[in-house]
Specification:
Radius of gyration: 18 Å
Shape: globular
InterPro entries: HTH_HxlR, WH-like_DNA-bd_sf, WH_DNA-bd_sf
Keywords: DNA-binding, Transcription, Transcription regulation
Distance between the termini: 24 Å
Strand content: 5-15%
GO molecular function, one term: DNA binding
Number of helices: 7
Structural class: mainly alpha
Pfam family, one: HxlR
Protein name: Helix-turn-helix transcriptional regulator
Helix content: 40-55%
Order of helices and strands: HHHHHEEHH
Largest sheet: 2 strands, antiparallel
Strand order of the largest sheet: 1-2
Length: about 150
């Protein structure tokens, strides 16, 4: 199955990993949430090849998580800003990070703190309807209705 086929799947997880399953895209979004906006900032932070960064920024822009805005005319330069969809992705990053801390931890790890009160953020996914922590109750996957 290729990414184009995955993006047409009825499963929202499949559709999302078609573009966001790439580690570079996730790390670019992480850095964008920490305030980075410019190509050179992303390149320096990630140590990514410029051609690869260009492709990932284009993907995130095409998918509507980032938008380009010109900040210099001479020479022409653009920055990348989070869109509403990009800002809505932050909880996903934190859940991935929480999983990583629990199952891929060891050694020194980056901490994420609430900027207002300084406490460490402990991300957990909760079902809005029941209030139950996701993963504590059985789930049932229902395919879309035909027709």
């Amino acid at each position: 199955m290729n990414c184009e086929n995955i993006s047409d799947e009825p499963c929202p997880i499949a559709r999302s990993v078609a573009f966001a399953g790439d580690a570079w895209c996730l790390l670019i979004l992480r850095d964008a949430h920490s305030g980075l906006t410019r190509f050179d900032q992303f390149r320096k932070s990630l140590g990514i090849a410029p051609t690869m960064l260009t492709r990932r920024l284009a993907t995130l822009t095409e998918e509507g998580l980032l938008e380009k805005r010109r900040y210099s005319e001479h020479p022409p330069r653009e920055e990348y800003l989070l869109t509403e969809a990009g800002r809505d992705f932050l909880p996903v990053l934190f859940i991935i990070g929480a999983w990583g801390r629990q199952h891929r931890g060891g050694g020194k790890m980056t901490r994420f703190l609430d900027a207002e009160n300084g406490t460490e953020i402990k991300a957990v996914a909760v079902d809005e309807v029941t209030g139950a922590k996701i993963g504590t109750r059985p789930i049932r996957i229902v395919p879309p209705e035909e027709g």
